[in-house]
Write a structure and sequence with these properties.
The complex is a heterodimer of chains A (about 170) and B (about 180). Chain A is α+β, with helices and mostly antiparallel strands and about 170 residues long. Chain A folds into two domains: about 30 residues; about 130 residues, Immunoglobulin-like (Sandwich), CATH 2.60.40. Chain A contains one helix and eight strands; from the N terminus they run αββββββββ. In chain A, strands 4-3-6-8 form a four-stranded antiparallel β-sheet, with no helix packed on it. Chain B has about 180 residues and is an alpha+beta fold. Chain B has three helices and six strands; from the N terminus they run αββββββαα. A six-stranded antiparallel β-sheet of chain B has the order 1-2-6-3-4-5. In chain B, helix 2 packs across helix 3. Chain B is elongated and about 90 Å long. The chains are: A alpha+beta (about 170), B alpha+beta (about 180). Chains A and B meet through helix 1, strand 3, strand 4, strand 6 and strand 7 of A and strand 4 and strand 6 of B. Chain A: Its main location: endoplasmic reticulum. Chain A: Keywords: Endoplasmic reticulum, Membrane, Signal-anchor, Transmembrane, Transmembrane helix. Chain A: Pfam families: SPC22. Chain A: It is found in: Endoplasmic reticulum membrane.
Chain lengths: ~170, ~180
């Protein structure tokens, strides 16, 4: 009854149960954080279109420079490992009811870096699936995905609307 | 000589009963594990509710050996979600983030492009020859939960089978030798 095997087994089971419980509690505690993030994106300028045939997407890709200001510090809790943020352009075309194209992303490893200002080009190609984007209205959305140390992952976004790609080639 | 036969008989009967109870309890453990797995499959709607991260392509978010819990709901796929997908001709599913979504006006079908957070380029090189987009049927689930390190158990066992056999052997020995 009190052999080494039994004791080792009991200890292991107990330890694992406590660990699992602590993970569950840590993840659950995230629910009590009510963040109030703020962000603003401005497009400084469009650098025109580049014609670049690539497989099926034989259409112009847009190049732009944007200003991103954000304060995401309130998203951090003690169970937050990092924040993955990205800016996506969202628009509608005759072919597609929704298009989401990621333009820029970043990983915020700590709370100290969560309040920032950056001026950047689009990191990924802003190109549609088939149609040309000249004169297109679109939204810019800042998404954030909270990656926890353990447990449930959270995600949310801020939508900024009223952007327009200029009509003419440069 | 009679008493020897008696003792042999008694030993034999005890052994058989013990063996039976042990076989039954082992069966209970195996079946309950199976029940839990199948129940998870039903609840999450994903054919593999738990996956182990095998590569470093999502670092520093997910490291090798971390565990992801998947969920497959009817909700449409959107950018930023971490999905697990299968590519034709590749056996091992890949865990990467969605960076582009194009949803059809008429059919509602989606074209999805993924990328690993730690990779420089998108995943078109990983897809099948000539494949530009992932469709709904490639995607096995989206990651909703995360547990660090636990997946190392399975990684070690698949990469060093000797350890697996030693472990199974030790456990079997424990079951056989243990007395209530």
């Amino acid at each position: 009854m009190h052999s080494f095997g039994y004791r080792a087994n009991a200890l292991l089971t107990f330890g694992l149960t406590i660990l699992a419980l602590m993970c569950a509690i840590a993840s659950f505690s995230d629910n009590f954080n009510f963040p109030s993030p703020s962000a603003e994106i401005q497009i400084v300028r469009f650098n025109g279109f580049k014609k670049k045939p690539h497989g099926n997407d034989e259409c112009a890709q847009v190049s732009l420079i944007m200003n991103i200001t954000a304060d995401l510090q309130s998203l951090f809790t003690w169970n937050t490992k990092q924040l993955f943020i990205f800016v996506a352009a969202e628009y509608e075309t005759p072919q597609n009811s929704l298009n989401q194209v990621s333009l820029w992303d970043a990983i915020i490893p700590a709370k100290e870096h969560a309040k920032f200002w950056i001026q950047t080009k689009n990191k990924y190609r802003f190109v549609d699936q088939g149609s040309n984007l000249q004169g297109k209205d679109f939204n810019l959305t800042l998404h954030w995905h909270v990656m926890p140390k353990t447990g449930k992952m959270f995600a949310d976004k801020l939508v900024m609307s009223g952007f327009r790609i200029p009509e003419e080639h440069r | 000589m009679g008493w020897i036969g008696d003792t042999v008989d008694s030993v034999k009967s005890i052994q058989i009963r013990q063996l039976l109870t042990q076989a039954v309890s082992l069966g209970m453990i195996v079946t309950s594990a199976l029940i839990i797995w199948k129940a998870l499959m039903c609840i999450t709607g994903s054919e593999s509710p738990v996956v182990v991260v095998l590569s470093g392509s999502m670092e520093p978010g997910f490291k090798r050996g971390d565990i992801l819990f998947l969920h497959m709901s009817k909700d449409p796929i959107r950018t930023g979600e971490i999905v697990v997908f299968n590519v034709d001709g590749r056996e091992i599913p890949i865990v990467h983030r969605v960076i582009k979504v194009h949803e059809r006006q008429d059919t509602g079908e989606v074209d999805v492009l993924t990328k690993g957070d730690n990779n420089y380029g998108d995943d078109r090189l990983l897809y099948a020859q000539g494949q530009l987009w992932l469709q709904r049927h490639h995607i096995m689930g989206r990651a909703v939960g995360f547990l660090p390190y636990v997946g190392w158990v399975t990684i070690i066992m698949t990469e060093k089978p000797i350890i697996k056999y030693i472990l199974i052997g030790a456990l079997g020995l424990l079951v056989i030798t243990s007395k209530d």
